[in-house]
Amino acid sequence: MKKFISEIPTNLFEIFLVELNGYGAEIISKDENITIFAIYSEDKDAENIKETILSIFEDLGSGKIIVEEDIQEEDWSEKWKENFKPIYIKPFLIIPEWEIAEPKENQIPIKLKIAMAFGTGLHPTTQLMLSFLPKYIKPEYTVMDIGTGTGILAIASAKLGAKKIDAIDIEKEAIEECKINAWENQVNINCYQGSIEDIKEKYDIVLANLQIEIFEKYFDNIAKLFNKYLIISGIFNNKEAEKIKDFVKKNNLKIIEEKKAEDLSNKEDFWYAFAIRNS
Ligand SMILES: C[S@@+](CC[C@H](N)C(=O)[O-])C[C@H]1O[C@@H](n2cnc3c(N)ncnc32)[C@H](O)[C@@H]1O
User: Fold this and answer.
1) Which residues are annotated as a binding site?
2) Which of 76, 124, 198, 251 has the smallest set of CB atoms within 10 Å of its CB?
């Protein structure tokens, strides 16, 4: 088994993955400039895979293989499984595009072509957000997904039949991911780059899986953007949950449902998610 470790400018990484046409890559480290990643291959395919990687780097005008090593087959297969398993969050089956998983009856498949969200499995806050959607999204509703990232929540809303979905993120790379993943799932989502203050319309449902610092700055703006429900997460531990409860009160809103999930690395802390409406 061969492992090719490569580096590429971060803004080209998603395009590289698309060119790789579904073959998986494991992200080792990533910052705004450089992404370092590994690609694994059976020995018999190694030369072909290496040629493919190098030719994509050549087409993109950037990127290089920095380490090429032989590894034990069992290590490779364990790592692979650990990082790229399909995940079922009722009713959605989230499938990395290169995995084969047949959705069962009543499961709604969401394919993600881009690996970023799968470095350590799907984040608990994303899972909480997804678990709220079947109850609150109705086919006649319009939806805004603030901080869309991979586009996963917008795609899930589209699959539940929402009639118009806009998705915004400040990061250009996120918008590229959102577009690719929307296309991969054959759904119509308007993914665009911008921040919360650029949102000019009101929506029936607003989804916002953000961090407390963003809620501290923008909660009052977000509170004005929805007609029916605001569903939020990204809130860590009691202290942050209390802050959110204060913002909710101050804006004359009401929490109608609360969910929490254990943090994966620290089982004593929880992530929170809230469904909110006007009071
Ligand atoms: C925790 S991720 C959520 C990704 C995805 N919605 C999910 O649930 O898995 C938060 C996203 O919010 C984006 N973000 C941060 N500040 C923002 C802002 N002011 N306006 C829009 N998006 C923002 C980040 O770039 C990031 O992609």
Assistant:
1) 126, 147, 169, 209
2) 198
Domains and CATH numbers, the chain: 2-82 (3.30.70.120), 120-278 (3.40.50.150)
Condensed to tens digits (0 to 9), the pLDDT of residues 80-96 reads: 445 557 889 999 999 88
User: How far is ligand 1, taken at its centre, from the CA of residue 107, in Å?
Assistant: 26
**Atom 6, ligand 1: which residue's CA is nearest?**
148
Which atom of ligand 1 is the closest one to the Cα of 125? Answer: 8
Q: Is 182 exposed, middle or buried (0-12, 13-18, 19+ CB in 10 A)?
A: buried
Neighbours of 45 (CB within 10 A): 13
- 99-103 long-range Cβ contacts below 8 angstroms, 24+ apart: none
Backbone angles phi, psi at 47, to 5 degrees: -65, -45
Ligand 1 probe mutation, 126, 129, 169, most atoms within 8 A of CB: 169
pLDDT at residue number 218? 98
Question: Taking CB atoms and a 6 Å cutoff, what residues make up the pocket around ligand 1?
Answer: 123, 126, 129, 146-149, 152-153, 168-171, 174, 195-196, 209-210, 214, 234
Gap between the terminal Cα atoms of the chain:
60
Distance between CA 86 and CA 84 in Å, rounded?
A: 7
DSSP 84: S
Which residues define the annotated binding site for S-adenosyl-L-methionine?
A: 126, 147, 169, 209
- Find the mean pLDDT for residues 103-120: 73
